[in-house]
Amino acid sequence: MQYITWIPGDGIGPEVTGAACEIVRASGAAVQFERIEAGLTQGERTGTPLPAAVFESIARNKIVIKGPTATPFGGDFRVRIERKTEQGVIEARSHPSVAIALRKELGLFVNVRPVRNYPSVQSRYQGVDIVIFRENSEDLYTGMERMIDEGTAEAIKIISFRATERVAKFALDYLRRLKRKKLTVVHKANVMKMTDGLFLKTAQETARAYQDITLDQRVVDALCMELVMKPETFDGLLLPNLYGDIVSDLAAGLVGGLGVAPGANFGPDCAMFEAVHGSAPDIADKDIANPMAAILSAVMMLRYIGQPTSADRIEKALTQVLQEKRDITRDLGGEAGTRRMTQAIIAKLA
Predict the structure, then answer these.
(1) Which of 254, 275, 299 is the last residue of a domain?
(2) Is 168 strand, coil or helix?
(3) Which of 82, 233, 265, 300 is least surrounded by Cβ atoms within 10 Å, i.e. has the fewest?
(4) Per residue in 161-199, pLDDT tens?
(5) 143 and 263 in one domain?
(6) C-beta separation of 88 from 122 below 8 A
(7) Nearest CA among 155, 131, 152, 153 for reference residue 143
(8) Using an 8 Å Cβ cutoff, are 133 and 112 in contact?
(9) Model pTM score
(10) 250 and 137: one domain?
């Protein structure tokens, strides 16, 4: 039995992750969920958006399924974390969001975003099947910002050999397991010659040990153009943190939007699976949210924990519901709500 930490999150998070967990149970997977609250709503209720109980649960279970967590725009919102070191010293750190706090504190150094076409999901493109690898630990997302004077702000971009080599090895190993043959490194080394130059050079050097995988490279703006012209030509993409965040959302738009895009974050001894869309508070509790991205994230989770039979059953049931078009949510072209779509998928599992 695999115990899994379940963080429902904010807005539509409890609905879509609740649907995913219900479907996982119905598939016969040998899992049990431990529900722990975290997010902006939790912070407003208790004063702590990311309580210690979250980390205690993850330390036990090592696997997380997480709903979207909200973050205010601008202002001075920070997530403060106090944790005891091995020497017994209390260290305090702060992060700009719950999601970033979890990635940093758990050492989740890579975000994996599969992007592909699904039956009956309306899209401008066909034949898209890309795996995106986003370095999670550095770049501009370290949050090293300051005001220089009243009218000028500064942010520091960090790129290191260690972090780039680590994510490049992960991406290459991941593609090798899937029997894929090409990885494209994305950068802006023509302008940011030291930081993005180091990212590109390190990835190229790392790939020399993987003769079965072709490595090429694209400047990030050229990549964006090519993605909207011929996305079917790409296989795997490796990007620094900021470009990865932007390009992965762009790529989701190629296949139907964030509602069909799963995601996972991996570290040395822990993995967190989450839909990549936001918390959408305007539609929360209205039974209209599309649970597909959360369900596909759960499918990734099941494969990761060694339960591929349940993963395959869920993906097959979801595909059948999509093809029939009767029990899908409005954003997918149907009239069903979250609950009806969930129950339709469960019925296919019976």
Answers:
(1) 254
(2) helix
(3) 82
(4) 999 999 999 999 999 999 999 999 999 999 999 999 999
(5) no
(6) no
(7) 155
(8) yes
(9) 0.91
(10) yes
